[in-house]
Amino acid sequence: MNHRARQPGGFTSVELLLVLALSALILGGAVVSYGTLVRSQPGVSSIVTVPLGLTRLQNFYSLSSSTLNVATAPQYGALSLAEELREQFLTDTISATAVFCLPRDDINTWRPALIPYDPALHEELDTPQKFRLHIITNASVPATLYRDYRNPLNDGAPVPQNASIFVLGYSKYPGYLKVSAIYDIDVIRFTGGSEPNGIYASVKRYADSTTTTTPSILSPMGGYDVFFPPSVPNPTRASQWAADGFTPIFITFERSTRLALRETPATIERFKRAAERPFYFIWWPDPATRHLGPLPNTFASSDPRQAYNQMAGRTSFMFTVPMFPAL
User: Fold this and answer.
1) pTM confidence score
2) b/e per residue, 135-168, with b = 16+ CB within 10 A?
3) Residue 45: pLDDT band by 50, 70, 90 thresholds?
């Protein structure tokens, strides 16, 4: 007897009900997760009005204001800007002829496109200290603008809070060095009773405008900022979070051949580790970090890591940059 082949059918009512139940369960979980994220968002993107002052804001961003609205950490919008700036920094340094990091205590008021330099008259600029002395002597830069400083020395001298990174490129102007870009890192603490307690941190890039045809003063070309609240919740006095901070911004590793100089204090010797060319470790503030609280550091003072080990827990923006003294 011939039987007709059974034709495939659709879902049964039981199967449809099961699928609908599972879909409702998944969607319900997504709604709960989204609700949690939305409720926590105000704590993530809180805005603080920071009294940076007219002088700083004009210098940083060419703004005619005394206050600036800044998002508190962790801030993932600023994180995307920081990642973009990281890529630009790597591009700038890869094509550089030299990189010099200069520490400072106040704002940076000198952002030139060209620096006088004659290889027949001027000595090789193979250290940040020689670069600093050169611009003081030949470019009329005030001696107080950048610190004469060589790493944390454990001698009681305060560590500079801010830094400027000069990225030099190939120059087509005889008698001058070309400044491709300057990166300013500024870290400012606010502790006043009427101020928002915390630390304002920013990284800013200055370069030639794409519309200019002749060198001039470098213009703002990108950056990011963030406000870090104290590591102690709701502090009643500044001493409770005095150990919060972001230093050192950079460490200079000098050539090992400089060990022959036998300098004092002896702790400076620990940084003479470069086999051939000197290089830097550089740190930028991380918008994804919740605060800049103190971290344990158990290395001995003879170990170079003792000077910067705490930075590993404060930021993920760390760079190893050769100095490229090819002048």
Assistant:
1) 0.85
2) bbeeeebeeebbbebbbbbeeeeeebbbbbbbbb
3) low
